[in-house]
Amino acid sequence: MPILFVIFGVAALLFLIVRCRVNAFVSLVLVSFVVALALGIPADKIVKSIESGIGGTLGHIALIFGLGVMLGRLIADAGGAQRIAVTLIDKFGEKNVQWAVLVSSFIIGIALFFEVGVVLLIPIVVTMARQMKIPVMTLGVPMVAALITAHGFLPPHPGPTVVAGEYHADIGRVLVFGIVIAIPSVLLAGPVFTVLSKRIVPSAFEKIARAESVDGTSLRDLNDTPAFGISVLTAMLPVIMMSVAALVAIVRSSLGLSDNLAFTVIRFVGDASISMLVSLLFAAYTMGLKRNKSIDAIMSSCSGAVRDIAMMLLIIGGGGALKQVFIDGGVGTYLAHLFAGSSASPLLFAWTVAAILRIALGSATVAAISTVGLVLPMLTTQHVDLALVTLATGAGSATFSHVNDAGFWMVKESFGLTVKETFGTWSLLCAIVSVVGLVGVLVLERLIA
């Protein structure tokens, strides 16, 4: 019976968001109340459950998320992202320009939100395509493949960051495993899929980018941007710090070494919040003070970054409310009992639930967070690596973007595609990232078992 209420809740969300155009946060809160009543949660405890879900979710990610978007904004405002992309394209040469776009987009995608990455990279990709007289989608496919893979698998992006916290997974371990899985994902969904998509929707590769794709986003003079090395280091610093700490922890555990002061310091410095704070301070110097920017200008960039994500934070909190209602209403426990003694993999279950919710709701982040409430109780009865559960959820939430996803329309308009062409490129690309991610998770499970 609880499953019927979950289906009802998803259907209600779909109706409110897609049909009635109700704000996603308001829709999530309304549905959380209705589903809570349907699941039999006492009326006097519903508000507490919703508040607990919102507070618990935002309490964990607000610091990491906030510092992360400030870091990304400082890099973008200084021209660091442009420097990374243009330099790599120049170094790789015209023959390997696809790989240059793939690598630069992945590096930039770690530090910046998907939407911001698209806005920053579109003028670069369009300019290069025009200069080389090649279809813009030849470069566009690897660009969006790298950005969406980083968005779905790697902290400090909202989905993996929130889900890792809810599952109590080590975020550094999620990052290391996420990079391992991301590499084959971007290779297959980028350069390899470009060849396939030319056959599926050849019309998408016959058009030149429209002028409006780059309106208002003209490129800077490269002399007015930070050096390549410092731009890459600034973007990758949190990844380096968290990855080193995670790898040291893995080595220490495998060798059976006792804890000591050195390990404690590494663990502290590699904590996600500390890594992001140190990286932000480093960026404030390399992307700001070193370039003669005033403190006021730096803080203005940081404040603007936080303002831009205010609604996204509320939506994430709304997803946390629905997740908590699922848990308090016993849906997760019901599923745990249903699958008790079953050979069904919780990794496959997490991926499937997240994929269904993504296709239904459109938002990858909301789908991932809502999945937690259904999967979390199952983890108490089965031994499974929590970092892999996090990545399985992220992979599922990346699947088949379509018309109810803002990213679908952003890609369509940015590259001047028709709806059919967007399905044949962007939607299939997301499905490839999702499936390859799942396969990667299952392979890693075997290797580390």
From TrEMBL:
<keyword id="KW-0472">Membrane</keyword>
<dbReference type="Pfam" id="PF02447">
    <property type="entry name" value="GntP_permease"/>
</dbReference>
<feature type="transmembrane region" description="Helical">
    <location>
        <begin position="174"/>
        <end position="196"/>
    </location>
</feature>
<dbReference type="GO" id="GO:0015128">
    <property type="term" value="F:gluconate transmembrane transporter activity"/>
</dbReference>
<feature type="transmembrane region" description="Helical">
    <location>
        <begin position="423"/>
        <end position="444"/>
    </location>
</feature>
<feature type="transmembrane region" description="Helical">
    <location>
        <begin position="309"/>
        <end position="327"/>
    </location>
</feature>
<feature type="transmembrane region" description="Helical">
    <location>
        <begin position="54"/>
        <end position="76"/>
    </location>
</feature>
<feature type="transmembrane region" description="Helical">
    <location>
        <begin position="263"/>
        <end position="288"/>
    </location>
</feature>
<feature type="transmembrane region" description="Helical">
    <location>
        <begin position="347"/>
        <end position="376"/>
    </location>
</feature>
<feature type="transmembrane region" description="Helical">
    <location>
        <begin position="134"/>
        <end position="154"/>
    </location>
</feature>
<protein>
    <submittedName>
        <fullName>Gluconate permease</fullName>
    </submittedName>
</protein>
<dbReference type="GO" id="GO:0005886">
    <property type="term" value="C:plasma membrane"/>
</dbReference>
<comment type="similarity">
    <text>Belongs to the GntP permease family.</text>
</comment>
<keyword id="KW-1133">Transmembrane helix</keyword>
<keyword id="KW-1003">Cell membrane</keyword>
<keyword id="KW-0813">Transport</keyword>
<feature type="transmembrane region" description="Helical">
    <location>
        <begin position="96"/>
        <end position="122"/>
    </location>
</feature>
<feature type="transmembrane region" description="Helical">
    <location>
        <begin position="227"/>
        <end position="251"/>
    </location>
</feature>
<feature type="transmembrane region" description="Helical">
    <location>
        <begin position="30"/>
        <end position="47"/>
    </location>
</feature>
<keyword id="KW-0812">Transmembrane</keyword>
<dbReference type="InterPro" id="IPR003474">
    <property type="entry name" value="Glcn_transporter"/>
</dbReference>
